[in-house]
Structure prediction request, 639 residues.
Amino acid sequence: MINSTYDEVYGRWRDAPEGFWAEMAEAIHWYKKWDRVLDASRPPFYRWFTGGMVNSCYNALDRHVEHGRGNQSVLIYDSPVTGKIKAFSYRELLDEVARFAGVLVRQGLQKGDRVILYMPMMPEAVIAMLACARVGVIHSVVFGGFAAHELASRINDAQPKLIISASCGIEVDRVVPYKPLLDKGIEIASVKPERCIILQRPEEKASMIAGRDLDWSELMAEAKPVDCVPVAATDPLYILYTSGTTGMPKGIVRDNGGHLVALMWSMKNIYGVEPGEVFWTASDVGWVVGHSYIVYAPLFNGNTTILYEGKPVGTPDPGAFWRVISQHGVRVLFTAPTAFRAIKREDPTGDYMRKYDLSCFRTLFLAGERCDPDTLLWAEKQLGVPVIDHWWQTETGWPIGANCVGLGMLPVKPGSCTKPVPGYDVRALSDDGQELSGGQIGNIVIQLPLPPGCLPTLWNNDEAFQKSYLSHYSGYYLTADAGYKDDDGYLWIMSRTDDIINVAGHRLSTGAMEEVLASHPDVAECAVLGIADAIKGEIPLGLIVLKAGVRRPHDEIVTEVVQMVRERIGPVASFKVASVVKRLPKTRSGKILRGTVKKIADGVDYRVPLTIDDPAILDEIAADLAVLGYPGSLSKKPA
Ligand code: COA
Ligand code: AMP
Prediction:
């Protein structure tokens, strides 16, 4: 017996989308209500709640303190890598944020200015984000696992007046100094910030550049709190860069009003979380998942959020997540499937899990990559709670497809993210734009307008926004995911249609890695593709063809290109495997046969494509991959 109002709510949204969102917007504090719910005067660009005035920080903190949540914990910093646990009440966090906002104002920052944050998972990262929101400054967080070049490309695009960073991050037991990366990033960038604010951590003292670098603690010691600045609902709250198909990441813009409304709605209706409950997203503030569900949504909804500086395994063992859940009374956990694969590998029988009282725990949500049914079923069996795979993208900022637990759960089909969330009309289209049904795989698109909370455009680049997302099918947003809808209306999101790969839930561009490989002096040609990995889902594999006459040992060149990707993109790329090949496998028209190589590496049945220019090269690659430990040519089928 299914007891879900999903169909009814979805229908209500579809019949009157503007009325639906206007009603949901009542849950937010507005300084001034909107003139129009949806401004559709400039299609394909749509804006939500035009004329409205809000403040995201006010909705995250001040409002709750004013309404009696001042003493409730808002943020619990749990850091197994430093041995620290610290809880902040709503009142305490508000005080810190208001004072850091005072620091920003004192540094001359004004509404619309940009600030880059390059921070580890520390409370100060959240404080800085909310302080920016408080005074209408646009933050752009850069994930700590990205290297200096990636930071530089974001500095050039966002043109920040200020960068906020810390002396180091801590990766399990390894201190990662951030300051040298920051200094190098600024040195490479063509745009220079006026100031940097550095949080000195006891694990590593950063050297400061006189006249440019300021000390977080010194500034905070003399800071004066400032109030929230009302901003337009359509003003940007943040820019978050995400991998595109080239080396240059895309600057996803998030507005204030639509984001507030959508995230607030999602907490109750998708995640089924009531104000006052503890909600934990085990991700990083550098990713969209962290922006939306570590920082903003739980705070909009009056929850307690956990900021966890650690890993699912190794800090100190595969019981780490269960310790956090039982110690802090977590009701709902959201993480990536890769974290569960890592736990499952080290604790297949769930012994660590059973050491803790998990009676408080209600639901597990997974996203960032498709959850393979094995992992989902294992988690469900061990935990004895519903495990919900849900699908979204940096661009949308909140789930597109989910089992909306707050509306009453629908039956789970492992491998499917369930159904489109109210607000999203999702379809599968053939290459020539025909709608596909009955399980036929196609390009997954969303009918315009996208709901509140989704990107209105790319930072300073309406043209690229249109070209990347809106030009393929008129009236639709292209997700760049391939998949299908089954006869029950369930969505199955299977793979990307571009050259993005998903490594441990992190979205990476193989094009960007190819650019790095191609810049090696001995490399004539190269290709990077994603191959299956038991823990990370996918990892990149590089194929490199050397320039004529290069006689150096292949291992040496491979070591160099691996190091180059680590230095230019960052350790997060997990680029560790490359093979020197005589030629790249191509079709007669010159297209690299990435899909076939992937199948060879993954040990999946493949056919030698009829269009291949030189079939022998596949055997050579298969032999090379077999040496590297990949299945090789076992499954080759005749053309
Ligand atoms: N700063 C500096 N380096 C970082 C970093 C950071 N913030 N985050 C990751 N790295 C480094 C890691 O130390 C690692 O370096 P190494 O190659 O020297 O070992 C590399 O980047 C890859 O990191 P990661 O992908 O995290 O792999 P891992 O092997 O350290 O851990 C998992 C594997 C599965 C445990 C880990 O990926 C994980 O917990 N993932 C959770 C998923 C997640 O948060 N996804 C976000 C989207 S929801
Ligand atoms: P990101 O922008 O980093 O959040 O990555 C978004 C991409 O990750 C999507 O376009 C999908 O390719 C993939 N993805 C995220 N969650 C899921 C999921 N639950 N199922 C399938 N793919 C997913």
